[in-house]
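Work Package 3 (structural annotation) set out to generate three-dimensional models for the target panel prioritized at the project kickoff. During this period the team completed the workflow that converts sequence records into discrete structure tokens, so that structures can be stored uniformly alongside our sequence database. As a representative example, we reproduce one entry of 231 residues exactly as it appears in the project archive.
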Amino acid sequence: MAGKKVLIVYAHQEPRSFNGSLKDVAVAELSRQGCTVTVSDLYAMDFEPRATRKDITGALSSPEFFSYGVEAYEACKKRSLTSDIIVEQKKVQEADLVMFQFPLYWFSVPAVLKGWMDRVLCQGFAFDIPGFYDDGLLKGKLAILSITTGGTADMYWKTGVSGDFRYFLWPLQHGTLHFCGFKVLAPHISFAPEFASEEERKGMVASWAQRLKTIWNEEPIPCSPPWYFGQ
């Protein structure tokens, strides 16, 4: 939709990968709609995933005992977080929709993306206490996960060997994104592209592009335990 701003947080090492294709088609389709699209290509940026003392540029509030959460919160209030965090926070702040494009690693995100979440979504910026879940500081924004898996779709049902795919979405969509106030759109999961034919992979990319045509009309999921685990 014209005038909307989208941030794509992208975590894959190879530009010509299937993840790269999904990211590229999202940039193309959203740009075609008149959106302003920004990509944080975490591997290309050599983004620092570790939450350390180096993230605070000024004096520590408790130098005798280092607590990352406390110090990041204080630094956020004083605008003394390190510049790479501030740059990413500004991109999030400006975005109407934040899209995460990544391959599933151990039912979760790659380490570089986990580090982005740990460092960028800090207290004082993404949430406060009080100020989380429906009152999270990023409320009014949309988020969506676009994930590729190694396993096939039949592995990710309740009766499948990996269990329902919604189980692994709980800590990401609910415990992270909803906690920070995002309204979460239904995930886009591309199952087992490595085992698909070239034709099938093209179809998977096309279906993502097709969905993005009407993404702004979608209703968020009801992000609460029943969506993930049933009644």
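The mean pLDDT is 97.
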